[in-house]
Amino acid sequence: MKLHQKGFLLVHLNLSESLWDHEIIAATLNEYELQGAYWENHIRVSLDELAAGGLITRLEEKLVKQHGQAILQFRYQVSPFGKTRIVDAGLED
Question: Which of 14, 17, 49, 77 has the fewest CB atoms within 10 Å distance of its CB?
């Protein structure tokens, strides 16, 4: 049984000092064998929810062109509170 997606996002992000959202999205799509704009947006919403809950922190943002459109990308890291919740939830190896 695979870890729930928000748990995966936290654990994957915790393995690095920080990651850009497109890196996290690519890893999540690969892990859950998903594809398409719906799932990319779903993961972005999950990242927003984790940030709103104080589990992850936005460190930086940049505007990039993607498919002819301007896209705002964020670089995230797990917050101290997020690290505590990872341990409390038993998500850490």
Answer: 17
Structural domain boundaries enclosing 47: 5-80
Tokens describing residue 66: 């993607």
Report the predicted TM-score, pTM, of the whole model to 2 decimal places.
0.92
CATH number at 42 reads 1.10.10.10
Q: Tens of pLDDT along the chain (93 residues)?
A: 788 999 999 999 999 999 999 999 999 999 999 999 999 999 999 999 999 999 999 999 999 998 899 999 999 999 999 999 999 999 986
Question: How many structural domains compose the chain?
Answer: 1
> Are 56 and 30 contacting, i.e. CB atoms less than 8 angstroms apart?
no
